[in-house]
Amino acid sequence: MSAHLPKSVEVWVKLESMNPGGSVKDRPARQIITEAIERGDLGDGKILIDATSGNTGIAYAMIGAAMGIEVHLVMPGNVSAQRKHIVETYGAKIIYSDPMDGSDGAIRLVRDIVAADSANRYYYANQYGNPSNPRAHELTTAPEIWQQTAGRITHFLASTGTSGTIMGTGRGLKGFNRDVRVIGCQPSDAFHGLEGLKHMPTSIVPAIYKQDELDEVMFIETEDGWDTAERLAKEEGIGAGNSAGANVYAALKIARTLESGVLVTVICDHADRYFGE
């Protein structure tokens, strides 16, 4: 897919689909849970609850099963059947929100549930507002990319759902080199088909999202994300979801404008979570 680029322009993808839970969200889920336990916010039978479009929920459920933590997840009713099945396999409970309201609907519903929790049964993980989310990437993803590119990275691109990946990795990379360009990608309109991503102008903006820390924001059409995901499978042998397709589409678009550079983006999860869609 990058054969048309000059040899001085490199595009690399970080295969976060190879994480134990199958997605980039293993990192923030682990950070959120471990830091909550350290603070004493989670434990003694408390139930972890959060809104999720799927991948963070799978990571919560996996880690919760391993650590004996009960997990309840508020998910839009239209998330893929594969994600629902994986979550339930790990023993987590799913509470469905209105599919027409997307991730914002799940956020509103989980807030209502927590507000009504007079018995204080829940620890609200709040991935959209929890600083542990971007911190996970600042502490792990960014140093790994810096090391894996031998410090040559010039651009980092990632699409925004919670925005933890772009915010945390961007901060970490700029800690190594302020000249690294950090580019956030998001759907081009509110009614999009890029599962898990947010069109920030029309969404509940995550508290952890700081657009002024980004060097650029790109808007991606749904068709470009899906088409690029198909190309990744057929041309590179990488089975990826449509958010990863959006990431790679953006990276290639930027790469075509450069005379030299080392661009890195993320394969968020595997295509098997979208089969049948």
Brief rundown of the structure:
Helices cover 39% and strands 18% of the residues. It is of the alpha/beta class and 277 residues long.
What is the percent of helical residues?
Answer: 25-40%
Which structural category fits the helices and strands? alpha/beta
The main pleated sheet reads as: 5 strands, parallel
Please identify the oligomeric state.
single chain
Please supply descriptive tags for the structure shown above.
single chain, 277 residues, alpha/beta, Rossmann fold, 2 domains, four-stranded parallel sheet, 18% strand, globular
Show the helix and strand layout:
Layout: E1 9-15, H1 26-39, E2 47-51, H2 55-67, E3 71-76, H3 81-89, E4 93-97, H4 102-115, E5 122-124, H5 132-148, E6 155-159, H6 164-176, E7 181-187, E8 216-220, H7 222-236, H8 242-255, E9 261-267
Parallel strand pairs: 1-9, 2-3, 2-5, 3-4, 6-7, 6-9, 7-8
Helix pairs in contact: 1-2, 1-5, 2-3, 5-6, 7-8
